[in-house]
Write a sequence for this structure.
């Protein structure tokens, strides 16, 4: 199976928009609710807290340095940063060098091909620094970076790689550039924004009570909308039927 292309992703998003809206609502919902007249268990996802735990990682005085809150936040996405690695980033030998590189990546940068061309080399250099820390690995490094620049750097994990038929041997920067190609497509971008807005409308209309953190949806980046929708749909296929998913073409 060849990697998915933007026209295919446009088709998938449009054909399954209602399912993706439900997935996004589910992500931010905590208790059992009624959807479309059918009782459905809504477990919510701890990942709804990833960007905001202990304060956002991309705002305030800590925007250009890693904190212990940043290092704990990936646990909401089922990845634990080792204590020694956290110390190296927050107080140890990597504190200054990683802060310098973060300062070279604007907090308001939004992922598209032009922005990635400009800041991708710095992101890749920082990614390599993080990945070199023992027991952090490429998934942990990706989530640390996504915590600091959530509109620019997509979360990477095995589910996303499987859904888009990406090779885990690829460099992260190649994968991030491919995602930049996706979200630079006007049709894909518009669909992701529409899915986010439809989820907000569904929740604020009272159809989805017990929302974990509604205001997160208003500021959720399009790359996180894409990540959440893909993960919510596809993780069960990775676990149960790895050869079947919306993204099979």
């Amino acid at each position: 199976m060849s990697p998915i292309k933007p026209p295919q992703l446009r088709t998938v998003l449009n054909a399954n928009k209602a399912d993706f809206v439900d997935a996004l609502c589910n992500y931010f919902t905590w208790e059992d609710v009624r959807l479309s007249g059918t009782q459905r268990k809504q477990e919510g996802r701890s990942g709804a807290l990833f960007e905001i735990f202990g304060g956002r990682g991309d705002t305030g005085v800590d925007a250009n340095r890693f904190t212990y809150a940043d290092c704990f936040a990936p646990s909401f996405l089922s990845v634990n940063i080792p204590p020694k690695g956290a110390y190296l980033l927050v107080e140890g030998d990597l504190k200054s060098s990683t802060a310098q590189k973060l300062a070279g990546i604007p907090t308001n940068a939004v992922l598209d091909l032009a922005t990635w061309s400009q800041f991708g080399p710095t992101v890749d250099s920082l990614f390599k620094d993080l990945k070199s820390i023992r027991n952090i690995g490429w998934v942990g490094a990706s989530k640390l970076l996504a915590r600091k620049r959530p509109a620019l750097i997509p979360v990477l994990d095995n589910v996303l790689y499987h859904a888009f038929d990406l090779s885990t041997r690829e460099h992260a920067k190649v994968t991030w550039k491919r995602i930049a190609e996706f979200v630079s497509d006007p049709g894909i971008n518009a669909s992701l924004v529409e899915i986010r807005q439809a989820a907000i409308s569904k929740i604020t209309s009272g159809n989805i009570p017990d929302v974990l953190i509604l205001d997160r949806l208003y500021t959720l980046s399009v790359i996180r909308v894409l990540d959440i929708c893909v993960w919510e749909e596809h993780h069960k296929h990775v676990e149960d039927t790895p050869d079947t998913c919306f993204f099979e073409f």
